[in-house]
Amino acid sequence: MHHFFLDHSGLELSVRVEDKLQELKRNLQVTDVINTSSEIRLVKDNFVVATLVPSLENRDILLEIRFFDQFGLVRSETYTDRLAYADYYVDAQSDQGHYAKRTRRVYYHSDGAVAYEQIFDEKKFYYLFPEGRIYTKSEFTAEFVRRLKMTEEDIVLIDRFAQFDYVQPLFCEGRRARLIAVMHAGHYFVKGESAYTVNFNQDYNYLMRYTKLIDLIVVSTQQQKEELTNKLQEYGRHIPEIKVILAGGADKLRYPNGERKAYSILSVSRVQIHKRIHWIVMSVIKAHEVNEKISLSIYGVGNVEYMKEMKKTVEKYQASSYIRFMGHQEVAEVYKNYELFVTASTFETLGLSTLEAISSGNAVIGLTAKYGSSLLIRPEENGYLIDFVPGVNDQEEDRIINDMAERIVEVFEDRERLHTFQENSYIIATGFMTKIVEEKWKELLQDTMMEMKEICGAEI
What pLDDT sits at residue 456? Predict the structure, then answer.
């Protein structure tokens, strides 16, 4: 959107690092150049005056230049095929100490003339154009939507409805286009399902109020479609057409290079309370009392305090030798090294980590929570589902942990059955491949375009 207002809207990077390096060495009278793994530092009289940041994909191509004075960062320049914009900073103070506070961003046309400025004022910001026009974020977005000049031949896919700055302008300025809302997460929570909200998900509350302005909604599962329809009826809202297309898919089946680590379990998720990772920790501790070969690796980052509490639990039960916190990693190729994937999330619209797990041949254990678990975890076929009812009390929580521990022990008791679970996970995953999702989107968009063509009689 921001580059749309420039006369060079391309985003491909093409400025060479070496060209800018030679230019800056001359202009800044550089006395030394230091190469690191992430940047090139230009030194003058033992002081770093600038750094060049290359592209991650190609170290010969420039992404950014940062300029410094004795107080710290003062300006940064970001490049595409030329200078796209520059950020300006002042030295500021916070509870954590001094930091470089961004005050404005200047966007440039291809000839170097200022296209417009973005002024940052605490949590708000404004757009200032050379002729004197001043826009808020919503007004700027509305101007962008107006300039798109959308017609009946256009299709707009809307993601997060909580971001009013773009949704409201779309509703006001883009009504001639076909508007399709994509609901990645559940729309409605009962008490105990979500740690953050009861009833409508805050991301979709705005959508629920204005469904009459939406032409079509895409959800991930048939159960989600049915519950959404029922809730819209219950609240007397307009019910647009609703299609079921998975929120994601498995790109391929992944097989281990050798043997999987025996009796190994992994958990992969954001570290948040509603993921109930502490249930997994406690269930593994209990299972380990029966089978000392069992181990757990927890992948993911998130809530720091929640992580600290779990680490205290691991220390309390002297479980650090078999329960490890792995932090954030690229896990696509990690699942295949483990035998069992366990999730205790109380709500997953689909459960992309569970999908990644079965496409890597993991046996799986999860809760009977909405919506994806029942699709991806087939009891006695590729794993087990633990009964879950929203609004659990302490007694129910203990029951879930004990049931999960028993199932973990049971999975590893029969190696032949475990291998059957793993093979069945591969079979189940074939029904959730990315190519299937792509075909459904292709069909949806083609059908939508045909409907629009019939309505407006235009060649699309």
Answer: 66
Any idea what DSSP says for residue 106?
Answer: E
Options 3.40.50.2000, 3.40.50.720, 3.30.70.20, 2.60.40.1120; CATH of 148-244: 3.40.50.2000
> Would you list the domain boundaries of the chain?
3-135, 148-244, 264-432
- Stretch 108-126: mean pLDDT, rounded? 92
Contact 14, 8 (CB under 8 A): no
Buried b (16+ CB within 10 A) or exposed e, 383-398: bbbbebeeebeeeeee
Instruction: Report the chain's terminal Cα–Cα distance, integer Å.
Output: 24
| Distance (Å, whole) CA 167 – CA 162 | 8
Pairing of strands 62-69, 72-79: antiparallel
Chain segment 191-222, per-residue pLDDT in tens: 666 665 666 666 777 788 889 999 999 998 89
In the chain, the amino acid numbered 51 is T
The dihedral through the CA atoms of 378, 381, 383, 384 has a sign that is positive
Q: Return mean pLDDT, the chain.
A: 90
Cβ neighbors of 245 (< 8 A, separation 6 or more) are 218, 219, 220, 437, 440, 441, 444
Helix (H, G, I), strand (E, B) or coil at 138: helix
Structure confidence at residue 283 (pLDDT): 98
**Secondary-structure class of domain 264-432 per CATH:** alpha beta
Which tokens in the block code for residue 262? Answer: 């025996």
pLDDT at 305: 94
Which pLDDT does position 81 carry in this prediction? 92
What phi and psi values does residue 89 have, to the nearest 5 degrees? Answer: -130, 155
Q: pLDDT by residue (tens digit) across 325-337?
A: 999 999 999 999 9
Least confident among 137-141, 262-266, 297-301, 306-310: 137-141
E-strand stretches of 308-376: 323-327, 340-342, 363-367
Residues near 313 by beta carbon (within 8 Å), at least 6 away in sequence: 278, 281, 282, 285, 319
Nearest to 161 by CA among 179, 135, 140: 179
Rounded CA-CA distance 51/75 in Å is: 11
Name the pairing type of β-strands 47-54 and 62-69: antiparallel
- Per-residue pLDDT reduced to its tens digit, 156-188: 998 877 666 788 888 888 778 899 999 877 666
